[in-house]
Amino acid sequence: MVYNSLSGKKEVFEPLNPPFVGMYVCGPTVYSDVHLGNVRTFVSFDVIYRYLLHLGYKVRYVRNITDVGHLENDADEGEDKIGKKARLENLEPMEIAQRYANGFHEVLQQFNLLPPSIEPAATGHIVEQIAMAQKLLDNGLAYEVNGSVYFDVTKYNQNHHYGKLSKRNIEEMMESGRELAAQDEKRNPIDFALWKKASPVHIMRWPSPWGEGFPGWHLECSVMGQKYLGETFDIHGGGMDLKFPHHECEIAQSVGAYGKDPVRYWLHTNMLTVNGQKMSKSLGNSFLPHELFAGSHPLLDEAYSPMTVKFFMLQSHYSSTLDFSNEALKAARKGYKRMINGLRVIRKMTWQDDDGQPNEALQNQVEKQIAACTSAMNDDFNTALTIGQLFNLLKKINSLHSGQLKFGELGEDLFNRLKQTYMTFVEDILGLIEEKPAGFDELVEALMTLYREAKHAKDWPRVDEIRAALKENGVVVKDMKDKIDWAYDES
């Protein structure tokens, strides 16, 4: 089941052309560092992408790069944000775009996100954007004024519903639009630009049938979605802030050009808050990923690793508001380390033919917990519920590791399915990885060898010394009945 923002309800996911799934996610505008709201969106859709692949679908995941057309205040007037940055730094606009695109990719790699199938840039599709604007002109749903082309929202609304995604009323939008600074060349205040005439000082400009100019912000996604996924495709997503006007305009453009809805399932991630307040630069409570990793923001008590932050995000459903706080991040770090400790254990664990007797009640419980992991993800990609079910499986893994639970109680087939389920969901679907520096395993194993030797010799001062050294490296010793092992410190 998938919650469709367009219908406002959960629907059974049925791809248009199974096993192929087309998924388009609005990517970043590359004029500044990627912020946490972006990261949450891309983390969420990475999990969706991974899960669809796990189910056996052939997914074409398109995530665009906006490198032109995004004007100041997300309006139809003002300077292009990338062009403005280029002017201030005396650089070529594409130098600015490339720098921030590189930074965007570096951040997503730190969160262990898979690359998309295609990552097109708006500047690479100017010809197609001009063609779509011309098609809308030919269809009578756009008009040209002084070298600019605008989409005629009121004319479109005569036969369609502009506002159906964001559940808005066109009369109310018209009224609120009049309160803004009027754009004299528009027929109506809610019309939006498909193509803008470039002013003499505008850096980013291309020739068109209407003179030199540049595409409107909304046009690029309609063009690239249609080019790479078809006139109608399965999933389109982004942050909640894109629902209006960006995604609303996409629907209108595509319906106006091709006569059909472009997307079957609209998915939106929700906003971030900090200690209950909306995250924003003006409030001073907005921090960038690198500030989280370094602990360099005044609101942070300490540094938090990429996987800790990712685990924290996955503990909430993608459509729910997510509140950052030091307490929540510290709790997420404990949860992440618990889960990774379980991953370390189960990776090395193999079936043992011990003296355990089949326990039907236990087997039924584990069967249900394994099935519940899939059920949770099938319920609108609910990672929060999935993590809860994985922790239930982790209890069984830890009991097997400590010897409290016999392998025979589960049976070989069920043990192997428990192992495969845990590893697959943690690594392949949630995309969590073990964070450790280079040479970490060698260092820990060397200290553990010394620890075992000191304990065998009953050199207790040496035992305490080595235990303390391991603790300083984030490792705790596990002295069990028949073995000595180590785990990441969860405190």
Radius of gyration: 27 Å
What proportion of the residues form beta strands (DSSP E)? 5-15%
Counting DSSP H or I runs of 4 or more residues, the number of helices is 17
Mind describing the biggest β-sheet? 4 strands, parallel
Briefly summarize what is shown.
The chain has 491 residues and is α/β, with parallel strands linked by helices. The chain contains 17 helices and 15 strands. Strands 4-3-9-10 form a four-stranded parallel sheet, with helices on both faces.
Q: How would you describe the overall organization of this protein?
A:
The chain is α/β, with parallel strands linked by helices. It is built from 17 helices and 15 strands. It has helices at residues 36-54, 81-89, 93-110, 126-138, 153-156, 170-178, 219-229, 243-258, 289-294, 306-314, 326-348, 360-378, 383-402, 407-410, 412-429, 440-456, 460-472, and strands at residues 2-4, 9-11, 20-25, 58-63, 142-145, 148-151, 192-197, 213-215, 233-239, 263-269, 272-274, 277-278, 322-324, 475-479, 484-488. The strands form five sheets. The protein has a four-stranded parallel β-sheet with strand order 4-3-9-10, sandwiched between helices. A hairpin with a 2-residue loop joins strand 5 (142-145) and strand 6 (148-151).
Write the SSE topology:
Elements: E1 2-4, E2 9-11, E3 20-25, H1 36-54, E4 58-63, H2 81-89, H3 93-110, H4 126-138, E5 142-145, E6 148-151, H5 153-156, H6 170-178, E7 192-197, E8 213-215, H7 219-229, E9 233-239, H8 243-258, E10 263-269, E11 272-274, E12 277-278, H9 289-294, H10 306-314, E13 322-324, H11 326-348, H12 360-378, H13 383-402, H14 407-410, H15 412-429, H16 440-456, H17 460-472, E14 475-479, E15 484-488
Parallel strand pairs: 3-4, 3-9, 9-10, 11-13
Antiparallel strand pairs: 1-2, 5-6, 6-7, 7-8, 11-12, 14-15
Helix pairs in contact: 2-3, 4-7, 7-8, 10-11, 11-13, 11-15, 12-13, 12-15, 13-15, 16-17
